[in-house]
Amino acid sequence: MTITLKLLTSIGFLISLFSNLVFSQEIILGQGKNTNITVTTSDATTSGYPTLTSQGYMPNLNASSRFLSQASFGPSFEEINVLASQGIENWIDNQYNTPRAFMIMDSILGYNDYKNGILNTPNDRPYNYYMDFAWWQYMMTSDDVLRQRVTFALMEFFVISRFSSFGSNAYALGLYYDMLMNGAFTNYKSLLDSITYNAAMGQYLTYINNSKTDTIYNLNYNTPYPFDTISIQYVFPDENYAREVMQLFSIGLCELNIDGTCKKDINDVDIPTYDNEDIKEFAKIFTGFSYGDNFSFGNGPDDYELTYLQPMQMYNGFHESGEKYLLNNFTVPNREPVDGLADVQDALNNIFNHPNVGIFFGKFMIQRLVTSNPSSGYIERVAKAFNGESEYGNIRGDMKAFLKAILLDEEARSCSMADNNNHGMLREPFVRYLQLAKAFDLNSQSGRHRNAMSNVYNFIEQKPFSSPSVFNFFQSDYQPIGSIEQANKVAPEFQITNTQSITGYMNGLNDWLFGNLSDQWALYQGEHYTSYMEDFSFLDFTDELALSADVYLPQLLERLNLILAHGKLSLNTTDAIISALKEFSHDSRDCPTEYAGNATEIADCEEDKLYTNIIRVRIAVFLVMASPEYLINR
Amino acid sequence: MTKRRNISRRKFLGQASCAAIGSTTFLSTALNLGMINTAAARPHIIGAPSDYKALVVILLAGGADSHNMLIPTTPSEYSTYSTIRSDLALSYNISGTPDDVMNITPSNTGGRTYGVHNGLAGIKSLFDQNKAAFVANVGTLIEPIANLNDLRYSNKKIPLGLYSHADQIMQWQTSVPDDRSAVGVGGRIADMLKDMNTIDAISMNISLDGKNRFQSGNTISEYSIGNSADPEDIGMQGLTSWWSNSGFLTQQRDEAIKSVVEDVYSNIFQDTYADLSRQTIAGNDLFKTAIAKRPGFSSPFAPTALSQDLRMMADIISVQQHLGANRQIFFTTFGGWDHHDEVLNNQNRMLPILDGAISSMYTSLTELGIQNDVTIMTISDFGRTMTTNTGGSDHAWGGNSIIVGGAVNGGQIFGEYPDLDLANTVNIDNRGRYIPQLSVDELYAEIALWFGVAVSDLNYILPNIGNFNNYVSNPAPLGLFNV
User: Fold this and answer.
1) Whole-prediction pTM value?
2) Closest Cα of chain B to A231: distance in Å?
């Protein structure tokens, strides 16, 4: 059987299921809401016909679910249907226009005020896990799901981590996340600016209190004037940020062709983007920054926590003077008087205008959202959108155009591409966890959520702000051994996939499905859980429970397949899961005959039997989420 | 909800819905190559039962400032050190008054004297007993580079991404500085020697730090575990009980997972994940059984993560016969050494952790009587600048490693500790970055030969080794080992 389905709509992309059309017949999909759709099948009598004529799940439900697995942390059944009726580009535009629900920082402050009110400690600071509570509350309750997913990817690009001197500071982390969320649909340059002036980044990559080149003579004042020199101390600008802002946050290590490959010199060797002399020049640029709230360069902040709420300030007296020779023969002028911030802007513009940025950043974001090995054409289309050369916009660095180019590309949307053996990506462990919570509508009576995310981290070694280094949890060029390496492809997420993390993930599923998905900590020492029981959160399996009887198990698996895996589960897998579920049937247990006439015993027994169905649904979800077809998003 | 479906519809949906039609589900799982990895014990044993060796690699991630781990104390050299290090200099009083440094007397440095950081008391003690050595000014090299002129004007090949964490930490693990290789030295050693072990389900390479390049080979990947030896903490936890039958649901789940991951996947990502899942399941079962037989140790290990990692390694070594292991390579990471700031305070805190972990492990190996068959070494991204950026140091190149074990020719410093004067011809610039005069290749070569790699296979383990020495005619230029 061969079927070709083409969507030639105003959306402007093409879905091609299978090629080799033989026979053509036009039908309308989606109750006529989508126009200009041509569907052709090779044979109108094949079993494909009923689906195409929308007697079952419409194919565009799976396509909708698939899109939402790229553009969000994953959909619920209802969200899949909303998208299917709305259309992808409209959905993206709606997301662009959806405002922030609240600021994570405000939520942190709210928790703190509440705690301080109860304890009568008006000046106390927030606990670090208020950041996690606020972050989780945002992800569980806000509608800007595209912004959430994109920011999570940006966080893996512009990395700071709680494994740092500010790691216990909820203000530092909360503000940084708000900053990335606010910037997600603006311009790359605004993001680069804001992270560069951010005090947490200044700490993390050690250019806060970073002084200009200097020679210090330590004198022995016990000797006659002009004093003997005990030692000479040479001080040089710190090179850390100079290096990482180029290597990781913008242009990467080699000059790139528009298709993402490294440019080669005449000896077929990669052309580096910069050498150590360039690093030294950029190191001079990032001198003179100190805390925004202190009164002199080189000292600590006036307030070790609140200081992170404001950008660093520039002390021109400690900024390296003179010309600096940057990339592509650009020279920062010798400014008199010294103007550090102008130098920094020159340098950030020098980086921003490097031709690599759209290619390097583009490939990274494609890898995070869509596929580990984008084709050269895909990278080129996305890079051009970054450069302001696409149908989506003409402003360099425009995130909205850039993200549309990633998500609307034929390579992201096409079904035939999804069935390519080299296409796809491993879902990140933490994204799977979020997906579970969102797919089954984690909710609480109060609408408030608490989750310190400590358990989940112990199982999968991933949660926001917990990268082991500035190099993120995994690197873009990681190759696991086996068929991926043999195909000369990369699979970044496999860098954190090993016997330990696979086991940890399975044990996590056990805990999240049969125990608590959230770490619902007290807000202050002494808070009794009874005072926040209405904040306890639960997964909602009501719809799935209705499909838990033997006869409905195929439908249960179909539903889970749609929501979690957009139809990618194989027959072998769904059969294996159904067989396992049938081994412990609600009906296979009869209440003992001696219970007859004892209403209480019968009720207890029936409750036990009902619990079998709950277990069935949860094990079904467990097994779907443990299958390679779910784990690989494609 | 109104959905009436029968099996045939469901079958169709599996295919028509933009789905995995390529993943054929009917092929015999026996065809699955991955099954070979998880095969049960093989009958033949290569090597005598007593022929056991283990290598322990501790990665000090971030680029440890190792010029403050091993310090020159010859008066003129200390004076240079003190001047150049400035606020980073450790104090050293030749008169013996309290300072930051303990004297050691290496037997092979021609009268040059050295000290170790006070935080390394256990290493110093092992050094004094000839059970520990240092390797000085060692770093990533493609070919020897004699001095600055050689670097600048001889067209010598230089490692990719010099001074960059991502590249240098990778190259210290791969020893291939001219490529961004996914395959590491320990992985390639295991590629060569894996047949020495009699059970495939547990890899020769055991990681206490998850996935890493050092242990990834072309045909082997690491078995990764946590540092708890409690069998309850190993492998998949059981599900809830059902009608008082505690193991029943777990069994159903495990059988379903096995059935799913033993399927044949044509998508390379699914195939790789399924392969890893199968390895995980088989390995966990075997490992649980073996580790339960560990005797334990009378000597204590500190509660630090690193000490507990090394304790777990010692526990595993103690049950190596139950794992069919004649060779094992262990790996862990102790991170947080990127001291652009606060290098003195941080090293005062971190070096005792490193020291305690290595010392405790050596003591435990002595309890097992196996201390002569295990070698422990530290590696790091790079050395750091000798000059200060006030409080901290920046990325550089050559640094110093620690190597410990009964087979090590201890009490020596291998390689040449550089003259720290900035005018030294192996110094690159005014920051004090030293060109390594000993390559990572030369360090690993003697370790590989000690471990049992044939000289003829050394080129596979270390592709650039021919640039440094001919090991057929000169098998131990450094003389790291006494066996």
Assistant:
1) 0.74
2) 6
Helix ranges (H only) for A120-274 are 129-141, 145-155, 170-183, 188-197, 199-204, 240-247
Q: What is the mean pLDDT of residues A1-11?
A: 33
Least Cα separation, residue B242 to chain A (angstroms): 8
pLDDT for residue A51 is more than 60: no
- The label of the residue with tokens 């262990």 reads B330
Nearest to A428 by CA among A369, A340, A489, A353: A369
Give the model's pLDDT for residue A36.
40
The half-sphere exposure of A96 on its side-chain side, counting CA atoms within 13 A, is 15
- Counting residues of chain A whose pLDDT is more than 90, the rounded percentage is 74
**Backbone angles phi and psi of A58, in degrees to 5:** -75, 145
Interchain contact B37–A (C-beta under 8 A):
no
Cβ separation B21–A50 shorter than 8 A: no
Contact B233/A at CB under 8 A: no
Give the DSSP per-residue string, A73-120.
S---HHHHHHHHHH-HHHHHHHHHTPPPS--HHHHHHHHHHHHHHHHT
What pLDDT sits at residue A587? 65
Paired residues of A228 in beta bridges: A220
pLDDT in tens, B355-400: 999 999 999 999 999 999 999 999 999 999 999 999 999 999 999 9
Percent residues over pLDDT 70 in chain A: 90
Query: Does residue A427 contact residue A631 with C-beta atoms inside 8 Å?
Result: yes
Dist. CA B405–CA B403, nearest whole Å: 7
- The minimum CA-CA distance between B310 and chain A, rounded to whole Å, is 17
Mutation pick from B15, B260, B384 vs chain A, by most beta carbons of A within 10 Å, is: B260
Cα–Cα distance list, A426 to A159, A422, A486, A574, B47 (Å): 20, 12, 17, 20, 40
Residue A113 CA to residue A124 CA, distance in Å, equals: 9
Residue B426 in tokens: 């192996």
B90: pLDDT strictly greater than 60: yes
What are the φ and ψ backbone dihedral angles of B302, each rounded to 5 degrees?
-65, 160
Q: Which residues on adjacent β-strands are paired with residue A7? A: A37
Average pLDDT over residues B82-108: 93
- Tens of pLDDT, residue by residue over B226-237, are 899 987 778 888
**Structure tokens belonging to residue A368:** 């995070």
Q: Tell me what the mean pLDDT of segment A305-332 comes to.
A: 97
ipTM for the complex shown: 0.88
Please name the residue of chain A whose CA is at the shortest distance from the CA of residue B226. A500
CA–CA distance, B81 with B73 (Å, rounded to integer): 9
Touching check for B458 and chain A: CB below 8 Å?
Answer: no
Distance CA A301, CA A317 (A): 18
The pLDDT tens digits for A96-134 are: 999 999 999 999 999 999 999 999 999 999 999 999 999
DSSP B480: -
Q: For position A183, what pLDDT does the model report?
A: 98
Question: How far apart are the CA of A403 and the nearest CA of chain B, in angstroms?
Answer: 23
Q: What contacts B195, CB < 8 A, 6 or more positions away?
A: B46
Contact of B205 with chain A, judged by CB distance below 8 Å, is answered with no
For B271-300, b where at least 16 C-beta lie within 10 A, e where not — what string? bbbbbbbbbbbbbbebbeebbeebeebeee
Phi, psi of B438 (to 5 degrees): -135, 135
Residues in chain B: 483
Cis link prior to A337 (omega < 30° from 0)? yes
Residue B39 φ then ψ, to 5°: -60, 155
Spell A399-422 as b/e; 16+ CB within 10 A means b: bbbbbbbbbbbbbbbbbbbbbbbb
Residue A455 token pair: 């358990």
Q: Are B311 and B227 a contacting pair, CB within 8 Å?
A: yes
